[in-house]
Amino acid sequence: MTAIPAARSFTASGPHPAKIESVLPPFGSKEIPQQPTIELERLYRKQRLAAGYRLFGRYGFDMGGAGHITARDPELTDHFWVNPLGVHFSRIKVSDLMLVSHAGEIVQPPAKAPARLNRAAFAIHSQLHEARPDVIAAAHSHSLYGKAWSALGRLLDPLTQDSAAFYDDHALFEEFSGVVLDTSEGQKIAKALGPKKAVILQNHGILTVGQSVEAAVWRYLALENACQAQLLAEAAGPTKPMPPEVAKHTAGQVGTELGGLWSFQPYWDIVTEEEPDLFD
Prior knowledge:
By secondary structure, the protein is of the alpha+beta class. It has a single domain, classed as L-fuculose-1-phosphate Aldolase (3-Layer(aba) Sandwich), CATH 3.40.225. The chain contains seven helices and eight strands. It has helices spanning 38-58, 119-131, 144-150, 183-193, 213-236, 244-254, 257-274; strands spanning 68-72, 80-82, 98-100, 106-108, 137-141, 170-173, 198-201, 205-210. It has an eight-stranded mixed β-sheet, with helices on both faces. A hairpin with a 5-residue loop joins strand 3 and strand 4. The protein is globular. The two termini are 31 Å apart. Residues 1-8 and 12-16 have low confidence and may be disordered.
């Protein structure tokens, strides 16, 4: 485990710097852009994380205190940034985010909000980040269509171009046993996820991961939409999934990490223009 520097601050002194604009790589690139310094990379991730929470609020992915998005710290890589329990997604600011160690210690508390850690967030995300060093961010909530689909205990079919992004790249976790409060349950979820980009938590909801905050958040939006589309399609009549070879080809086109960056960008532009207080 990474040692925690004594009396270390992980936030800028004074107001947070201005918005760090995205620099999107060309299609075909496999490199996720990085900021030139650790401090800028940390702020970049925190800004996208705050925007992700605002988007969750806009889309109604809130259900009481349930739900969490985390971002791995670029320096202390066994630590992650997460929202404080009790602050609505639509009100999350960069300064509200808190840094949590793998042991569950709040290393950097929110600037103003009470430093309350969601036990389920820690139990799940600490184990995901440990099991998947490639994962920078993970997103989970109790959104309506995701939890409705989870009650069926099935994987999604490749019914549309959008849902094909998850073809052969999402898993099913069937061992629901109540609110996840113990890291042993988080370990089981991480094991079920394996190397995939998403997992359906039976009787619970959905969870996505990515090599960037942007990809994890976009994948959550897309997976929720795919659950809604299949529920509607099956209610209307028999469905016609695409052939496996077509689904696999389409997944390679629309399900990439780079695709997550590009797909998140328009949402980022809107929410940061309309809600600039998220940078506070």
